[in-house]
Design the sequence.
């Protein structure tokens, strides 16, 4: 990451006299965890961190993973995040030094979340069960992988700095996506929307602090996991208060007779710990969400 930051700074210095676009993509945080400078690891040495309560997952036995081991995993993960944070700060400081900050749009965003013990998992959408030893192979779910669309995997940091347009400290809870970045940059640069065949929406109204009554009320997503042994096709609809995830096979049929499908009340259960699919009063909401999801799938050529 230090090398990438240095190259980014060199690029900015060389291009500062004209408009430029810099895409700085970091591979961190990512395994192997130990490729982090000591300066970033030092923040967490011998520190006791908050970790998930493993007692919620009886299949995770002390012989397989202990709280001490999970503490070590979390320290390494945090060190990776800190390494990114430090280097991004160095790049932003260079914008200050060159007098470019007030005339530069900065978008900071991640590509996926990560679980370090949450839901008993380690990883993202193709996470493996935490209780599987690192030396073991895991060719399928029954051997340790767990395809998922938990918020821990999907939600990412999304921060935009645009002096003179975005008011510092502004927080917006609208349902947005990385798909929205392209149409946003296109509109900023005067490219007509009708010239683009894209799924996203321009964020300009939100960035300017305006309300948009036509903004999406639900976010739809898919994840086809067809590697590391197991094969599952997930279809999701997420609103501010609810999330429905359908687990299907390659023919669009419910996986395991629908027993893997998930419905979460995010308002009551933000950590997605209680799957209420097919239960009680939630069924009416489940039917509405599934209807909306099926319509979206049909429009987008999905089974």
Sequence:
């Amino acid at each position: 990451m230090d090398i990438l930051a240095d190259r980014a700074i060199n690029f900015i210095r060389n291009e500062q006299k004209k408009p430029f676009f810099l895409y700085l993509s970091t591979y961190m945080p990512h395994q192997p965890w130990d490729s982090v400078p000591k300066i970033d690891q030092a923040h967490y040495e011998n520190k006791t961190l908050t970790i998930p309560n493993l007692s919620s997952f009886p299949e995770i036995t002390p012989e397989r993973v202990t709280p001490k081991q999970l503490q070590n995993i979390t320290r390494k993960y945090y060190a990776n995040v800190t390494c990114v944070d430090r280097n991004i700060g160095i790049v932003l400081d260079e914008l200050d030094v060159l007098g470019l900050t007030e005339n530069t749009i900065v978008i900071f965003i991640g590509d996926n979340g990560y679980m370090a013990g949450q839901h008993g998992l380690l990883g993202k959408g193709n996470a493996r069960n935490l209780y599987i030893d690192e030396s073991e192979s895991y060719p399928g779910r029954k051997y340790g992988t767990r395809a998922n669309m938990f918020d821990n995997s999907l939600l990412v940091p999304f921060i935009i700095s645009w002096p003179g347009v975005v008011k510092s400290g502004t927080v917006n809870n609208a349902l947005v996506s990385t798909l929205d970045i392209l149409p946003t940059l296109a509109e900023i640069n005067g490219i007509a929307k009708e010239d683009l065949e894209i799924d996203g929406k321009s964020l300009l109204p939100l960035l300017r602090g305006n309300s948009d009554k036509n903004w999406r009320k639900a976010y739809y997503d898919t994840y086809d996991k067809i590697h590391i042994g197991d094969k599952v096709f997930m279809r999701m609809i997420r609103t501010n208060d609810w999330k429905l995830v359908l687990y299907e096979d390659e023919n669009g049929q419910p996986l395991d007779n629908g027993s893997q499908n998930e419905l979460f009340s995010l308002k009551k259960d933000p950590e997605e710990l209680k799957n209420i699919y097919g239960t009680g009063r939630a069924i009416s909401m489940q039917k509405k969400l599934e209807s909306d999801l099926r319509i979206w799938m049909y429009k987008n050529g999905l089974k």
User: Anything to note?
Assistant: The longest strand covers residues 219-225. Helices lie at 2-15, 38-41, 67-97, 151-154, 181-188, 204-207, 282-299.
